[in-house]
Design goal:
Layout lengths: L2 H4 L6 E4 L2 E4 H4 L2 H5 L8 E5 L5 H12 L4 H4 L4 H4 L14 H6 L6 E4 L9 H4 L3 E6 L2 H14 L9 H10 L7 H11 L5 E5 H6 L1 H11 L6 H10 L2 H6 L35 H14 L12
Parallel strand pairs: 3-4, 3-5, 5-6
Antiparallel strand pairs: 1-2
Helix pairs in contact: 13-14
Bound molecules: adenosine-3'-5'-diphosphate.
Length: about 300
């Protein structure tokens, strides 16, 4: 069977410990759970569409002194394996890829806290979590689910808003996800970042990541990293813009992976009524924890 035939177009979501995951990920989860990282490995954890790729590129540049040529050595998922992903056309599974790499490795995941293999916590690995305000995250996911033709069809916008609010999308509830890492951040030394902070002051956030990684780089290197990780530059970077993904997974004729990269795009999508309903539901779901999200500047 060719790689292309292995991909199931618009496959269903299958629950793993109550979290809906793409079938190919759910079927492969026992391999993921058995993975034991090295204490030097770094985990970048996010809810999908929160700015994962942006932080991955930033981290790779920080680890390579801002050298873009080194950071163009391979595409994002080859440089920084996607922990739970099974084998996809042209990309080995995250676990198989990790077996070929010596630590320290940078590993990406969208798993909520409770599905992360215990070894990350036992080995006290560093973890960077990136969160994005719910409405922009939803908008980005809506467009992504159109172009990621392995995910369930997002359907019309008004239905998708309801599905998102109920957590009936891949990797489950946004609300539970952002809360799960927030509640553990101090105990586990998780660096909890916000997409909006990165947009507002990328230099400050790059320096924050640098310190967390125990690095010290001169100002000119930081400025170069800020420039290289701008939305415009990453959109043109073939090793970071997912143009390498085959069309049977990401059909970028429907929507580009690097779509808008803005804060507040939700205002172009939500009607006032939808926004009010969403906010009311948000208050209920987030009432026991205050996480300082900003949905506009
Ligand atoms: P939009 O769909 O709102 O444009 P992820 O990497 O977690 O899948 O997140 C993808 C989202 O982050 C997309 O959001 C994408 O455009 C945005 N993004 C990627 N790189 C970015 C950058 N350098 N600056 C700002 N946003 C970026």
């Amino acid at each position: 069977m060719s790689d292309d035939q292995e991909v199931k177009i618009r496959g269903p979501l299958v629950p793993v410990k109550g979290i809906p995951l793409s079938e190919h990920i759910a079927n492969h989860y026992s391999n993921v759970l058995a993975f034991c990282p090295d204490p030097s490995d770094l985990l970048i954890a996010t809810y999908p569409k929160a700015g994962t790729t942006w932080v991955q590129e930033t981290v790779d540049l920080l680890l390579h002194n801002g050298n873009i040529e080194i950071c163009k050595r391979a595409s994002t998922p080859i440089r920084m394996p996607f922990l739970e992903n099974s084998k996809r056309p042209g990309i080995p599974s995250g676990i198989d890829l990790l077996k070929t790499m010596d630590p320290p490795r940078v590993i990406k995941t969208h798993l909520p806290f409770q599905l992360i293999p215990k070894g990350f916590w036992e080995n006290k690995c560093k973890v960077i979590y990136v969160a994005r305000n719910a409405k922009d995250n939803l908008v980005s996911y809506f467009h992504f689910d159109q172009m990621n033709v392995t995910h369930p069809d997002p359907g019309p916008w008004e239905h998708y808003v309801q599905k998102f609010m109920r957590g009936q999308v891949a990797w489950g509830s946004w609300y539970d996800h952002v809360k799960s890492y927030w509640e553990e951040r101090e105990k586990r030394n998780i660096l909890y970042l916000f997409y909006e902070d990165m947009k507002e002051n990328p230099q400050r956030e790059v320096e924050r990541i640098m310190r967390y990684l125990d690095l010290s780089l001169p100002d000119d290197v930081i400025s170069r990293i800020v420039e290289l990780t701008s939305f415009e530059n990453m959109k043109e970077n073939p090793m970071a813009n997912y143009s390498f993904m085959p069309r049977c997974i990401f059909d970028q004729s429907l929507c580009t992976f690097m779509r808008k990269g803005q804060v507040g795009d939700w205002m172009n999508h939500f009607t006032p009524e939808q926004s009010a309903e969403f906010d009311e539901d948000y208050q209920k779901k987030m009432k026991h924890v205050y996480i300082p999200f900003r949905s506009h500047f």
